Amino acid sequence: MLTPKNSVEVTIVARLGDNPHYRGSIHDDTGARKFGYERALVPGAFIYGYISRLAVATWERDWLRCGTISSHSRKPVFDGERLTLHAGALEDDGVGLRSDIVVRNSKGEDVASGFVALPHQPPSPPSIADYTVVPMAESPPFVDAGAMRIGDPIFSNEAVFTLEEHRTSLADFGETWPDYVGDGIVHAGYLMRRSVGDGVRSYSHPTPGIYVRGHGQYFDIAHVGDRLVTAGRVVEVYERKGSHYYDSDQILIANGERVIARFRRSSIYAVRRNAA
C-alpha cells in the first residue's frame, strides 16, 4: 500500500498465458522471432494492468471510480520475465495524491514508467453524445505507413462481459484483490486491454502494432454481465525515426449509458523496417 512516507516495491512475473489469439503475433514466440525478438513480447497493456495493482491496493474502489493511471513502455518485456515495480511515496500535487512508478527487469533496466493518482475532487465523465460507436467491419481496412488520418474512427462491437472472460482476465494479470474476484468487478487493466484490442482490430497495418503509452481516467465500475463497447477516434498522427504512430482518444461505455473510463493511447502502427 502506498503512503505519504514510504516507497513500495512489488515483484511480479510477466506472463502471457496460453491464448490462441496471440498466435502469429509478436506476442507469440514464433511471430516475435520474425521481427528479431528473442521470444514473445508481453503487451504494454499488461504492464499498465500490473501498475494498477498498486492503486487498487491503496485506494480500492475509490480509485476504480475516479482514479488515474499512466504507463509508458520503454523497452520490450518478454514472457516469463521477472519485473520489479518501484512506487514512490505519495505526494500531493495540488490536484490529488500521486505516486510515480518505475518498472525494472531482472537486469536493472527501466522497461516502463508511469504513475497512479487519486484526485481530491472526482472529475465529470465526458458526454457519450460527443463520441460515436462505429461497428467493426467484417474485414479491417488496410492502412499503410503514413496513411492514418486524424479523425479516423476506432471501431468496436458491443459485447457482454462474461464470467469466463472475467476469470481469464484476472488470471492474465495474476490478480488476487478479493473484490475483483468476489464482486465480479472488471479489472482496470482489462478495460485498457479492451480499448487496445478494438484499436488493433480496427485496421490492418504493415507491421504488428506496438503499445507505447497509455493514460486512463476512471469514472465508474463495470461488472460481469455489463454490455461493454468503446467509442473513439484518432487524434494525432506523426512519424519518429522512420516509425509511424497514432494517438487515440476512446471512452468505454457500459450498457449504453455509463462512461466507465476514458483512455488516451499512443501506438506504433508501422515500425521502420530495421527497428527490431
Number of strands: 12
Radius of gyration: 18 Å
Give the mean pLDDT.
92
Strand content: 25-35%
Distance between the termini: 37 Å
Molecular shape: globular
Residue stretches low in confidence (pLDDT < 50, at least 5 long) are none
Along the chain, the helix and strand elements come as EHHHEEEEEEEHHHEEEE
Helix share bin: 10-25%
Structural class: alpha+beta
Topology:
Blueprint (H helix, E strand, L loop, with lengths): L7 E6 L15 H6 L9 H16 L1 H6 L1 E6 L8 E6 L3 E2 L3 E10 L4 E10 L33 E2 L4 E2 L2 H10 L5 H6 L4 H15 L7 E9 L8 E14 L2 E12 L3 E13 L6
Antiparallel strand pairs: 1-3, 2-6, 2-9, 3-5, 4-5, 5-6, 7-10, 8-10, 9-12, 10-11, 11-12
Helix pairs in contact: 2-6
Describe this structure in words.
This protein is of the alpha+beta class and about 280 residues long. The protein has 6 helices and 12 strands. The protein has helices at about 30-35, 45-60, 60-65, 165-170, 180-185, 190-200; strands at about 10-15, 70-75, 80-85, 90, 95-105, 110-120, 155, 160, 210-220, 225-240, 245-255, 260-270. Strands 1, 2, 3, 4, 5, 6, 7, 8, 9, 10, 11 and 12 form a 12-stranded antiparallel beta sheet that branches. The longest helix is centred in the first third of the chain and has 16 residues, at about 45-60. The protein is globular. The model has no long low-confidence stretch (mean pLDDT about 90).
